[in-house]
Amino acid sequence: DQRLVDDIFSAGILPDRTSPWPVDYTVATPILQDADGHVRLEALLVLADMPGSPRAATALADIIAAPMNARDPWIPDAVAMAGAKQGPEFLTTLLGRRFPGNDSVAVAGTGRTLQHLARHLASSADIAGMVNLIKSIPAGNPTISIGVLDGIAQGWPQETTPTLNAEQRTTLAAAAKGATAEVTAAFDRVAARWNLPDVFKSP
Fold it and tell me: What values do phi and psi take at 199, rounded to 5?
């Protein structure tokens, strides 16, 4: 219940920007380091059972941005489970964060979180939400971008071709322009799932 969530934050098991004292979360912090990984995992699973909230969304973003958490074999999946309760804006917010590019294991963990979240969002077949998400991809790390695109391709309902207006088509083509070969292949997987083979190509 909410009391348990409040106790988790009060105990410092998860980062809390709403705490009355100033804490810098731009780097790994004592709060993120002191709690045993299994304890952090259990705390995340509690959040996954609760409705979304700005406090939880901010904490989840801070957790997965810390390499020690992104490298963990289970925490990226738990962040995705809890993040699915935070609404579509949460995934877009994560895409706008900076993640260390020199730690391939951490980047892969973050990409897995985003892939799970993208798959969950895509299952609703909300094409406006998908266009908004995809237009955020060009600024992202290629590994993370591929994770998001693969999540969309996996989660979009089969045999459901979206209807796009001219503005949306222009946005999608612009998002794919200049992508690496690996990211382009991921765009192609989304296009195949949508049964729109040329959707990411400029007219």
Answer: -65, -25
From the list 6, 116, 1, 96, the residue with the least C-alpha distance to 56 is 6
Tell me the angle at which helices 104-122 and 88-95 cross, rounded to the nearest 10 degrees.
150
Q: 121-134, pLDDT tens digit by residue?
A: 999 999 999 999 99
User: What HEC string does 25-90 produce?
Assistant: CCCCCHHHHHCCHHHHHHHHHHHHCCCCCHHHHHHHHHHHHCHHHHCCCCHHHHHHHHHHHHCHHH
**Rounded distance, CA 129 to CA 81, Å?**
19
Does the predicted TM-score (pTM) go above 0.90? no
Q: Which residues, at least 6 apart from 136, have a Cβ–Cβ distance to it below 8 Å?
A: 92, 95, 96
Provide, rounded to the nearest whole percent, the portion of the chain with pLDDT above 70: 82
Q: For residues 192 and 194, what is the distance between their CA atoms, to the nearest angstrom?
A: 5
Rounded distance, CA 138 to CA 5, Å? 36
Whether the Cβ atoms of residue 129 and residue 87 lie closer than 8 Å to each other: no
Q: What's the pLDDT band for 18 if we cut at 50, 70, 90?
A: low
Nearest to 47 by CA among 2, 93, 10: 2
